[in-house]
Structure formats: structure tokens, C-alpha cells
Amino acid sequence: MLIGCPKEIKPQEYRVGLTPHAAREAIAHGHAVIVEAGAGAGAGFADSDYAAAGAELVDSAEEVFARAEMIVKVKEPQAVERGMLRAGQVLFTYLHLAPDPEQTRDLLESGVTAIAYETVTDAQGGLPLLAPMSEVAGKLAPQVGAWTLQKANGGRGVLLGGVPGVGPARVVVIGGGVVGTHAARIAAGMGADVTVLDRSLARLRYLDDVFGRAFKTAYASAGNTQELVHEADLVVGAVLIPGAAAPKLVHRADLKQMKPGAALVDVAIDQGGCFETSRPTTHEDPIYEVDGIMHYCVANMPGAVARSSTIALGNATMPFMLALADKGWRKACEEDPHLLDGLNVHAGKLTYYAVGKALGLDVISPALALKE
């Protein structure tokens, strides 16, 4: 199979879909790899690294899309990229379709077979291709939250860990999954007073057993959530429903009850955000204010640490990428139901129920798509 990797063009996206090591592995399996010149520069990978791995460097994304049988990326294809996709081609990347009707429409019209990193599962019910970026985003959330809280950025002017004689900031993390756990660990490590909210008592018990008194836990009832959010200096939104639009858990009316200059960091913004007042921002212009509350809603947070993120993502995606190339997407998905869970679009039809529900579109089962 001919595998293609274009340069990411989403604003301030410095990651790359294929590392030189992944290219080398694919070539060792008998495949050919083409990479757009400069694709890895933002993550610290030179064109010479890809050439040394045996990949062919090409001058344009147009050539990558025109020639490759499978496109491997990081972020969802932008409008100009979607125009270059074609029927019979495989697209393997993050998609986040539920809040993005335009992308969904374009992928359906292209006839491409699109497999989304964020809905591939594992035997434990986890999301192995989302997890590494969730870990990165979770660890970044208190860091960017602390920065947002600085007075020069419009925040309350509160130091996350406090100082002797001055109490620490109150941090509330909504969601105790991968993002929330890493956010709580880092915030607690910075000295903050941290509470994690979740609706799963089993998850709360796990967090309490593993982390003890490092941070507190609370059940995420509407009343508990509202009460804790109103008293918080920093709120991290870390709620995920796989493939679906994120639920709105903090409403505009809540902002008026919060401390002026408090900060909201919405890590769920890729799936539409879990705060009613969230809208996607970029690393170039990451924060904005609504009703005196500062919002940090960068849609590709891990792109800020592009090298670490690229390597972590590549480690996770490589086995699946090789399976798709070695066997073809149909056989690979037939043999691995967890990879089949990643199938979102095939030949003009939507194949992921949560996306169809969010966008009001008809869906066919992935198993039926295998037969078409």
C-alpha cells in the first residue's frame, strides 16, 4: 500500500501524522511511504529523517492526496484537504465529527473510508488512540489554567499553589477519566486544592484508592457541580462521551455566580465543549472573556508540545496503521472489532451512531459497511 502523510494545516498545529520510525516500520512491511516536505518540522523531524527511513519526499499536499491509498494525519482534514479526498481512499486521523456538520458532509460526499482515532476501542473499553493525547491535554490543563489566571491575562491573579500564609487556588475538574485524572494529578502537584467530579462511583473509588489525599472526589450531581464551580478559581472540563457531542455542564447563568476572573479550561472543545459559553480558540489567541470569566478553549492543546505529542500518538497509532496497510481496511476491521469501532464514514454513508444522533443523519452499522 502507498501511505501518504501531508503537512498539517490547521492553525498552530505542529504535530505530524507519521514519525520517521513509523515510516521505517511501514516500509519494512513492504509498503511505500510519501511525506510532504516539511511535514515533520514542527515536531522536530527533518526531511532527512524521513529520507533516511526510506520515505519519498514530495513538494505538495496535492501530490500526497492524489497518489496515496491511505492518508495518515493528526487533525481532521480541513476544507481544502477534504476537496482532495476520493472514493476508495482510506483516511486515518482524528475526526471529531459530532460538532462538525460541514466536515461530515464533505467526507460523505467524497466517498472516502474514514477511520477516526478517537473512536477506536480496546478490550478494556478504553480509547487507545485518544488516550495519549488525553494524557497530554490533561497535564497541560492546569499549566494553561494557571497562566490564564494571571492578572495580565484577565484572570483573578491567583497563584495555583498559594504561598505560606495565602491559601491555594480551588480547582474543580469535571470528569475523572484520562484527562481529568492527569489534570488533577498535575494541579495537586502544583499545590492547588483540587476536587474531581464524576458520575461513576466506581471511578471515584478508584481515584480515592490510588491517589488518596492528593485530591478530593465528589459525585457529579447537578447541585454538587454547580456549588463547586461557583467557588472555584479554575474549572477544567474533561468530560467525554466517545464520538458524541460533549454535554453542557456549566451554563451561562453559572458564570455570574463565579468569582470574577476565574478561569474555565475546556479540554472537551474538540467535541463541542462542555461549557455553554465555549467556542474553539487557537494557540495564537487562546483566551477570551464572557461575563467576567476567562475561557481557554484551544482545540488542539497537545499541539503546543508537538514533539512529545507526535511521538506518543505515533506509538499508539502505528500498530493500527500497519494492520490497515498490511491487510487492507476491510480485513483489518473484520479481524479487529476494536478497529472497526473507529469506522465513521464509508462510501458516502455514516457508520457511527453517536455522530448520526448528534447531527440528525442516517447511519448504517459498521458491520454492514464491511459488506459494501
Walk me through the structure.
With 372 residues, the protein is of the alpha/beta class. The protein has two domains: 184 residues, Rossmann fold, CATH 3.40.50.720; 169 residues, NAD(P)-binding Rossmann-like Domain (Rossmann fold, 3-Layer(aba) Sandwich). Helix 1 packs parallel to helix 2, helix 6 packs across helix 7 and helix 11 crosses helix 12. The longest helix is centred in the C-terminal third of the chain and has 22 residues. The radius of gyration is 21 Å and the shape is globular.
Q: Which labels suit this protein?
A:
372 residues; alpha/beta; Rossmann fold; 2 domains; eight-stranded mixed β-sheet; seven-stranded mixed β-sheet; 15 strands
Query: What is the CATH domain class of the largest domain?
Result: Alpha Beta
| SSE series | EHEHEHEHEHEHEHEHEHEHEEEHHHEEHH
The assigned structural class equals: alpha/beta
| CATH-level-2 architecture of the largest domain | 3-Layer(aba) Sandwich
Put simply, the count of helices is 15
The description of the largest β-sheet is:
8 strands, mixed
Distance between the termini: 21 Å
